[in-house]
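Give me structure tokens for this 91-residue protein.
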Amino acid sequence: MTEDVTEDSPQTSGFLAGLEFLTGEDPSAGSFLLVVGMVTCVFIAAFQFMLTPPISTLLTGLVLVIAVISFILGAVLDMLNYFDTPRSPSH
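Here you go.
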């Protein structure tokens, strides 16, 4: 019997894999912040145009709070040099 030899790829956590899905294979702080900003704008526009004022104001405030938390997360990842480390090809 022969065993198939497979090359082991470096294991990353699910959280970092999710970030890689958003920022691409070679992430940068700019791409992360751009994605957060675009998603924030889309949700604010949707809430402002589709809902009545008291509900839209509340949901817009919640989106802004989540955006600030995301920007802080991006700053922490930048301080931890997540965006500066080059990624090896997964192929």
